[in-house]
Specification:
- The chain contains four helices and twelve strands.
- By secondary structure, it is mainly beta.
- The chain has a single domain, classed as Roll (Pnp Oxidase, Chain A), CATH 2.30.110.
- The strands form three sheets. The chain has a seven-stranded antiparallel beta sheet.
- The chain is globular and about 50 Å long.
- The relative contact order is 0.23.
- The protein binds flavin mononucleotide.
- Flavin mononucleotide (FMN) binds next to strand 3, strand 5, helix 2 and helix 3.
- The site of flavin mononucleotide has 22 residues, from strand 3, strand 5, helix 2 and helix 3.
């Protein structure tokens, strides 16, 4: 085996599942941040984890309001994944700027894109410093799924976004 850097490791785990971390700004508008660093952490009770870089506006929002929805996007949102991952909600209304059609869910005021395969409504219960990121451990409240929507994954690390089954 050849030795590589950790930043190159996602190339070897592709396709990598992608999410939007959906939160609400103090203005009531929605914010969406693209994340690759997330996973399930417990099933009983349900817990999920994700890691947020220290420059993210989402980090500030979650320090005040612990509520979050983790949305697994459909393939039509491949462009929005890049756009929401390279701009900040601090100075941009991403939903409006990138023309993302949204939908309401039960049990939360936070909206998610219409083209969402899986939505996990959760609240942050603990954070752990992880150097350039902060790990967020969340309690799952509700989970919604739409099996007709095909999820988008990161290929070649995060170099390309497409469905897991390349047709
Ligand atoms: C493909 C891709 C994957 C990303 N994964 C993460 C991640 O796992 N954690 C993270 O903190 N930021 C990740 N980012 C960067 C954030 O999406 C970016 O910092 C964004 O501006 C945060 O938005 P916000 O400032 O509105 O919170 C990723 C970006 C892209 C394009």
């Amino acid at each position: 085996m050849k030795e590589i850097k950790i930043a190159q490791a996602p190339v070897f785990t592709s396709p990598n599942p992608m999410i939007f971390i959906c939160t609400q700004k103090p203005t009531g508008k929605m914010n969406m941040a693209t994340l690759a660093f997330w996973t399930y952490a417990s099933t009983n009770p349900g817990k999920v984890v994700f890691s947020l870089n220290k420059g993210a506006y989402t980090l500030e929002l979650l320090a005040k309001n612990k509520e979050v929805v983790i949305a697994v996007p459909g393939v039509s949102l491949a462009g929005a994944l890049i756009a929401c991952g390279t701009s900040s909600g601090r100075d941009t209304d991403k939903v409006e700027k990138f023309g993302v059609a949204m939908q309401k869910l039960g049990g939360t005021d936070i909206e998610v894109p219409k083209d969402t395969r899986l939505a996990i409504v959760a609240s942050v219960c603990e954070t752990v410093d992880a150097d350039d990121h902060v790990l967020h451990i969340c309690n799952v409240k509700n989970v919604y799924a739409e099996e007709s929507i095909e999820a988008v994954f990161g290929w070649n690390g995060y170099g390309e976004f497409a469905a897991a089954r390349k047709k």
